[in-house]
Amino acid sequence: MSYQTLEVTRRGRVGWLVFNRPEVRNAMNNAMRDELRLAWTELARDPEVRVIVNAANGKSFQTGADVLELATDGIGMERYRKSVEAWDMGFTSWQLGIDKPVIAAVNGVCAGGGLHFVADADIVLAASDAAFTDPHVSVGQVSAIETIALMRKMPAEAVFRMALVGRYERMGAARAQELGLVSEVIDPPERLHDAAQELAEKIARNSPAALAATKRALWGALEHGLTDACRAGAAELTGLWGHPDQAEGPAAFAEKREPRWKTD
């Protein structure tokens, strides 16, 4: 389908969901919020897509809610408030329960609500010119959902500093990697999308069923204590027993060929 605020493409077994409002630093308006739900779902349901890369056109990755729209259209803030109260935001992969691997490829500025997409990705790559900031308190808003989620990835004090200092400080890509917010810094920045595609292609060589079960187990562990998490992970492990990929993996290894994974 066609989108006004996004580009959704496929490169082999890799689906690309790209923010495409570069003129406003990819700020998320109502149209983008609606299209994100559709785009994530489209790529999740595509049997040819095994990995999803979330990236951006222009000089910024994502700058969160379109503050100008919120301030002027009369319905933006109310609509957003209702979606939060109902816990039905549905614009990131985690909120929609996407079980395909998701890579966020961050360039330029990632601010405010843009941190949702970093917190909810499975792997984050950052261009060397990337910078992260959370201006919520600087515009009279509460920093909560994104920063709470970020505490799964990085030390709590670093998250507190980002949330409390607001727009008056930015975290560079190198520091973000030191703190565990991103796993790799790409230099020069122009290589970011190629690096994301290369990593996605490596992941896509693996069993789709095993990838999905692994992702559910690891994310589920964040919701439980150690024992409950291990029990839930064990259920995912045994749930894959008998799946064709379990026989195909060893057979392909023994025969020194690429596996032929079951994709449905």
Describe the structure.
The chain is an alpha/beta fold and 264 residues long. It has two domains: 6-204, 2-enoyl-CoA Hydratase, Chain A, domain 1, CATH 3.90.226; 208-255. Helices cover 42% and strands 15% of the residues. It is built from eleven helices and nine strands. Helix 9 (208-221) runs antiparallel to helix 10 (226-239). The chain is globular, with a radius of gyration of 19 Å. The model has no long low-confidence stretch (mean pLDDT 92).
Write the layout of secondary structure elements.
Elements: E1 6-11, E2 14-19, H1 30-45, E3 51-56, H2 67-72, H3 76-85, E4 102-106, E5 109-111, H4 115-119, E6 123-127, E7 131-133, H5 145-150, H6 156-165, E8 171-172, H7 173-178, E9 184-186, H8 192-204, H9 208-221, H10 226-239, H11 244-255
Biased composition (Basic and acidic residues): 254-264
Protein name: Enoyl-CoA hydratase/isomerase family protein
Region (Disordered): 244-264
